[in-house]
Each structure stands twice: as C-alpha cells, then as structure tokens.
Design brief:
alpha+beta, eight-stranded antiparallel beta sheet, binds 4'-deoxy-4'-aminopyridoxal-5'-phosphate
Length: 338
C-alpha cells in the first residue's frame, strides 16, 4: 500500500482505481465501535444530512519510511478546535482530547496504513425525526465518527495555482460563524470553489462582508510585500487555521519574523510579491496569479519556497525541535512487541 510521490501527484483525489487498496477494507470509528466503513453510516433523514448539523476536522497523517511510523500532524490542536466548534454549535462530544487522540491512532493502526492519509473526525446530530424541536440543537441526539483514507497532495504545490476573487462573500460571524468548522457552512465554500473552477481557475479567494480579504475555500491566505508577511486577522471571518498558526510560529521561531495580522485589501493581493495558501490539505500552496494579475514574476516566490521546504521537513518528522507537533500512531504497538 505504499505510493510513490509520482503516484500521489497523479492521484490527487481518493485513489479508488488503485488495485492494492479497496475502499471496502477501510475501518472507521463510529460511536464507540471500529467498523468496516460500509457500516459507519448516517440516515438520510438525520439532522446532519438534512440541516448540515455537524462539526468536523481535516487532519493529515504522514508516513515516514525510515522510522516506519505514521505521524498525525497537530492532532491535539485539531481536536481542541473541534471541541470549540462543538461549543459554538451546541453539540456534545463525549470524549476528551486525549481520548480522541487515542481513538485516532487506533483507527490508523486498525487500517495498517503505510502511506500518507487524510482523517476526518465528525461530531454530528443523528436525530431523524422532524418535530417542533428539529432545529433545537440541544434537543437532538449526538453522534461521533472518525473516517480516514490514503491521500497524497491535492493542490499543485510544485508550480502554483491560479485564483479568482469570488463573487460569493465569506459567511459572517453573526450569520454562520466561519470560526467554527460546521458542515452546513461549507455550502459557502462549495459555491465559491465551484464558480472558480467552472471559470477555469484552480481556487477562489473570498472577501468578507466588509469587502476585505478573508481566505480560500478551504485554506488561509498569506501575502508577502516588501519583505513583510501579512495575513488576514482572526476577526476577518476566517477559520483560524492550524497550518496558519504553524506558519506564524515557524517564521517567528526560525527567522525571528512577525506576521502582520490585519485587514487586507483585495488590491493588496494584486501588487503582492508573493501569495500562498495554507491548510492541512493544501499544506503551503503557492498562488502565482489572481484575477489575471501575475503575483510577483508569476513563479513561486523565494519565501514561499523556503516555507514549503521547512513545512515538509516538519511534517515528516525531520526537525526534532517540532516533534511535539507529531503524534506517532504505531509507537504504542511497537512498544508492545518489544
Ligand atoms: N479555511 C477554511 C474555510 C478551511 O476549511 C480550512 C481547512 N480546515 C482552512 C482555512 C485551513 O485550516 P487548517 O490549516 O486548520 O487545515
């Protein structure tokens, strides 16, 4: 089940066509049990399916061949954010962060992955009846699942991507909170991403209701101008990304540089020297064009490139000083054998 990087680049999406892996072999977690993925189901009448009542995370796991280990990246932080999303959305997750970490590792072990993976913990409202309480979050039954599958890169981190400012605005905190990773809110991202792709771009960039730059459909945004690193601040209706935080921490730690967190104008992007997107899925994705304006000289900028290499070393466990960001999944099993 090991894929080469070339394989992964060819198969940016879930590789159903790959013979060695059958979707039917995957093991998921749902409500206390480890199940074949076909048995981990939610009814079409659930509040999750019908009303978008779920809070989720997207987590990357990286296989390290030399150490025969799979590292889940910033696992605790993802579960902490999921618990915060659940608090905002009045949902109950019946586990602590450390219990969730254990479950996540057990799901990886039961699948025996020896490759990069993408994991999606999902807390959801399982109730199926449509009653007068159908929209009262606290009156509905909770469920919890963790799904996972092999996944390589899905954005073009090698040559960079072309983006368009979306005609759709980012959801506003007092309408549907961008800070919480709520399933139903992703219709906002889906509309914008679909529009961008149908118009021939790779990705969209949202402005918020005030007309300032917010983020991509599933990524935060950074720009570099005259040597300064800038990113929209947390009050600009962004998801407070864990990769965003990682970049802010890494540039401070490695290069003693501070990232300016503030409102960003759309036209600042057009004249930026470099722009890149960050996300667990997108990692560090260079943006080389926005609305037909090339960014810098239209190739990957030097700071973006340096960050890509640093980030790659960190997530693959090659920088010991950031080891605390990695959760090894097989360590426990190996310790038991020794
Ligand atoms: N913004 C949105 C809307 C997202 O869905 C994501 C992906 N979770 C991000 C930003 C990046 O967040 P993270 O770095 O935590 O993956």
């Amino acid at each position: 089940m090991i894929f080469t990087e070339a394989d992964q680049l060819r198969r940016w999406h879930w590789p159903l066509e790959k013979e060695e892996i059958s979707l039917a072999d995957l093991i998921y977690f749902q409500n206390g049990a480890y199940l074949p993925h076909t048995q981990a189901v939610v009814n079409v009448d659930s509040a999750l399916a019908g009303r978008g009542m779920g809070v989720f995370e997207g987590i990357r796991g990286y296989w390290n061949d030399e150490e025969e280990e799979l590292y889940l990246f910033r696992l605790q932080e993802h579960f902490e954010r999921q618990l915060r999303s659940a608090k905002i959305a009045r949902m109950r997750i019946p586990y602590t962060v450390s219990e969730l970490v254990d479950i996540a590792c057990e799901v990886v072990r039961r699948n025996g992955f020896r490759e990069d993976v993408h994991m999606r913990p999902l807390a959801y409202k399982a109730s199926e009846q449509i009653t007068s309480k159908a929209l009262v979050m606290t009156a509905l039954e909770d469920g919890y699942a963790i799904s996972v599958n092999p996944m390589g890169r899905y954005m073009d981190v090698k040559t960079g991507i072309r983006c368009a400012i979306s005609s759709w605005r980012r959801v506003d905190d007092n309408m549907a909170p961008a800070r919480a990773k709520i399933t139903g809110i992703y219709i906002n991202s889906a509309l914008a991403k679909t529009e961008a792709v149908e118009r021939g771009y790779d990705e969209c960039i949202f402005l918020n209701a005030a007309g300032k730059v917010a983020e991509g459909s599933g990524e935060n945004l950074f720009l570099v101008k005259d040597g300064k690193l800038i990113t929209p601040s947390a009050d600009q209706n962004i998801l407070e990304g864990i990769t965003r935080r990682t970049v802010i921490e890494l540039v401070a730690q490695e290069w003693g540089r501070e990232v300016e967190q503030r409102a960003v104008d759309r036209t600042e992007l057009y004249v930026a020297d470099e722009v890149f997107l960050t996300g667990s899925g997108a990692e560090i994705t260079p943006v080389i064009e926005i609305d037909e304006r090339s960014i810098g000289d239209g190739t990957i900028g030097s700071l973006t490139s340096k960050l890509q290499h640093l980030y790659s070393d960190v997530i693959h466990g090659k920088r010991k000083e950031y080891f605390s960001w990695l959760t090894p999944c097989y360590k426990v099993a190996k310790a038991a054998i020794v």
